[in-house]
Amino acid sequence: MDTTQGWEWFITKFESLSKIDLNAYKRPQMERRINSFMKSANIGNYSDFISQMGTDRILYQRFIEHITINVSEFFRNLNQWSVLEKDILPALYKERSALRVWSAGCSTGEEAYSLAMLFKEKFNVRIETILATDIDNEVLEKASIGLYAEKALQTLPAEYLNKYLIREGDCYRINDSIKKLVHFKRHDLLKDIFPKDYDLILCRNVVIYFTEGTKQKLYQRFANALRPGGIIFIGSTEQIFQSRELGLESVATFFYRKI
Ligand SMILES: C[S@@+](CC[C@H](N)C(=O)[O-])C[C@H]1O[C@@H](n2cnc3c(N)ncnc32)[C@H](O)[C@@H]1O
Fold this sequence. Notes:
Layout: H1 7-18, H2 27-40, H3 46-55, H4 57-68, H5 78-95, E1 99-104, H6 110-123, E2 127-134, H7 137-145, E3 147-149, H8 158-164, E4 165-168, E5 171-174, H9 176-179, E6 182-186, E7 198-203, H10 212-225, E8 226-234, E9 248-252, E10 255-258
Parallel strand pairs: 1-2, 1-7, 2-6, 7-8
Antiparallel strand pairs: 3-5, 4-5, 8-10, 9-10
Helix pairs in contact: 1-3, 3-4
The chain binds S-adenosylmethionine.
C-alpha cells in the first residue's frame, strides 16, 4: 500500500476532520485496522483516504465504526454482574438512597439498559441518573432507538426479555419504562470534561484500545469523577495498575472503590 503521506500526517488530518485523537490509541492495532479498512475500500494511500472521507459521509461513518469497535452485549460477563448485584450495590445503598451511575463507552446501549433493568427489577429503581456516553454518534443513535436483533439478546436473562422488551418483527425493542432511566450523550473520554460525583462508573472494554499512559490518565480522571466510596467497574481483561496512587482500592476482581 502506498502511504506516501505518513502516519503522523494522517492522524493530524483525521483529527481535524473528526476531532478524534488517534495518538492515544495503541498504534500497531490502529494501523492494522486502518490499513485493512483502506484495502477493503480500495484506497491506496492516506491522502486519498482523507480527501474521500471529507466528501463521502458514508465512508467516513463506516470508518469511525470500524476503528471504534462497537461490540457489546447485555450483561456482558454475567458472573461480574452478579457480584455487582449481590455485593457492590447493596454496599452502595447502605450509604446512599439513590445512585448516580455512568456507563462510559456505552456503544449501542446494551450495558446501560442492563443496568436500568437490574435497578428496576432488583432495587426498585433508586437511581438519580444513568448517564451513558460514547464518542460515536452513530452507536448513540442506535442506543436511543433501543431495537435489537434476537441474536443480540442471547445473554439477556429470559425474565428481563419478557418483561422489558417488546417484540417487533425479528427484533425486540426496549420498553419505555427502561428507556426513560437512561440518558445517552456524546462524550469523548480523551477530550471532554468528566462529570462529577458518581456512585458507580462502568468503563468496560473501552480502554483496551488505548496506550498505557492514556489508560492511567483516564483511570485518574475516573477516580476524580467518583464520590468517596464510589465504585468503578472495569472489563474482564482489564486491571488498574497502581490503583492506590490513583486513590482507588480493589474491592473485588474488576471493581475498585474510591478511597
Ligand atoms: C467494545 S465497545 C464497549 C461497549 C461496552 N462498554 C461493553 O463492554 O460491552 C467500546 C466503545 O468505546 C467507544 N470509544 C472508543 N474511544 C472512545 C473515546 N475516546 N471516548 C468515548 N468512547 C470511546 C467506542 O465507540 C465503542 O462504542
